[in-house]
Design the sequence.
């Protein structure tokens, strides 16, 4: 009987952990995030990638030049990594109805889909990640939180086939 209870409790905790937060959970939080306003102009970002054990594998900086024309935005990102390598990613975003956004970039498979509410933005997408001469499609569960009018924090969970590979943590500062 104890074993059954223990197994049942374990199964419930696993299922509860899968639910995770919803962007609507942040509806009452401020400052209110307006993605089109925040990602407009020049921003600097500082980040790390940690493996599944929490070890920092790479550090990086990002220079972002962002602009909007109505509901269509461009986020031009220039990455510089701690090992001296560089990377370019250009996001093309579209503001949909009800705080929803879609986005595309050359290294994103299909469309990224997201939603903002209160001080938070959440989106999910598949990233084509180059590793040692191969490219792996990994899932990104990406959360951004507005701290004040200049600073936003970002944490993205990276997985493949449901297996946690690591996390990307960033701090954005609007100039």
Sequence:
């Amino acid at each position: 009987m104890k074993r059954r209870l223990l197994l049942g409790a374990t199964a419930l905790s696993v299922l509860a952990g899968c639910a995770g937060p919803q962007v609507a959970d942040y509806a009452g939080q401020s400052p209110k995030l307006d993605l089109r306003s925040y990602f407009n102009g020049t921003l600097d970002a500082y980040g790390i990638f940690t493996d599944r054990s929490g070890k920092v594998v790479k550090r990086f900086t990002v220079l972002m030049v962002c602009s909007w024309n109505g509901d269509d935005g461009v986020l031009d990102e220039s990455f510089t990594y701690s090992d001296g390598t560089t990377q370019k990613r250009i996001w093309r975003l579209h503001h949909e109805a009800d705080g929803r956004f879609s986005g595309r970039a050359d290294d994103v498979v299909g469309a990224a889909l997201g939603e903002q509410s209160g001080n938070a933005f959440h989106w999910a997408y598949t990233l084509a990640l180059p590793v040692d001469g191969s490219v792996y499609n990994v899932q990104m569960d990406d959360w951004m939180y507005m701290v004040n009018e200049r600073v936003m924090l970002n944490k993205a969970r990276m997985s493949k086939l449901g297996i946690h590979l690591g996390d990307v943590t960033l701090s954005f500062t609007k100039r």
